[in-house]
Amino acid sequence: MRVLRCLTCVAVAFPVLASGVQAAGPRNGTYYGYDADGGAVVAATVKNGRIPVLQAMPPVDTGPGVSFYYGPIGQGSDRIGRSGKWTTGVTPGGPLGPDYLTVCGNTLGSDALGVSFNCNSGSGNDDISGRPQFRARPSRKSPPANGTYSGSVSQTTSSTGSSGTDGTLTLTVSRGTVTGSATLAPVDATTGVATGPPSVDVSYGPVASGTNDASAKGNSYLAEDCASPPYLTRLGMFCLPSTPPGYTLIGGFVPVGVKGLPRRGLVSGTVYTAPTQSGPDGSQTFGPALPGAFAITASR
For 108, which of 93, 126, 133, 182 is 20 to 30 Å away at the CA? Predict the structure, then answer.
């Protein structure tokens, strides 16, 4: 199994429900949400008080080594607790080491989940803390919807001032098959930082809905893993290598008609340009560039 880069989990207090009070449970279905600022996307299936399937692309500020998670895996629990809190993923301190990615949240009524990547997960749901960063709501439709999605990829500046690529991106969906093209700023092959014009023409796909869904399940991925194999899950999450290499596209489609989100459907994600370098001890380090982020809606 490929393992995500370690994350530092930040403890932020949830609102505490009265002791012994049962939170309203979310109804069964598949929930979608995204964070346009951070490029995060989540698809979560709720069934009888559990979250048996969760697919998540973490926010861009988690760093260039983090890309995609399809779980639950490891020691993560998929049970929604009596307080409405839940966690799924790899519990910090588990067999994969401390502070690996965990996705957590709480129940916000019968038709919404609060989702957060700021988690402090222990042995059970009562140990979770973390304020929801965005909401996920149910949808009866499955992505990706036919159409053309186009817009901008924006640079993301890190604490050191480094940033990834920027430019324009177009994704076309026809009968569940996705193809894409982009015009992006070239990057330094060592750092992943944009070097300026002239721009590079990049292509993606084609990839059909459900491609390699089974092989992706129960795994975590680094950006460079998308080449073997690329995938587009049945919940609309994808990881696609680029032609030419070096502009890996990672993200997720959000269905048309999700409450509180654009009516035309959208796709959100990042373009990864930072290379991975392996140390003699097997450790992995990454260039300073954070990925460029995008959140684009379908044209009418």
Answer: 93
Give yes or no for residue 250 having a pLDDT over 90: no
**16 in a structural domain:** no
Tell me, yes or no, whether 181 and 255 share the same domain: yes
CA atoms of 158 and 290, how far apart (whole Å): 7
Are residue 84 and residue 196 in the same domain, yes or no? Answer: no
Q: Which of 111, 139, 167 is the last residue of a domain?
A: 139
Alpha-carbon distance values, 14 to 6, 19, 32, 131, 230 (Å):
23, 14, 21, 5, 37
If residue 71 lies in a helix (H) or strand (E), which one and from where to where? strand 68-71
Same domain? 151 vs 293: yes
Averaged pLDDT for residues 104-122: 81
Tens-place pLDDT, residues 165-221: 999 999 999 999 999 999 999 988 777 888 888 899 999 999 999 998 887 776 666
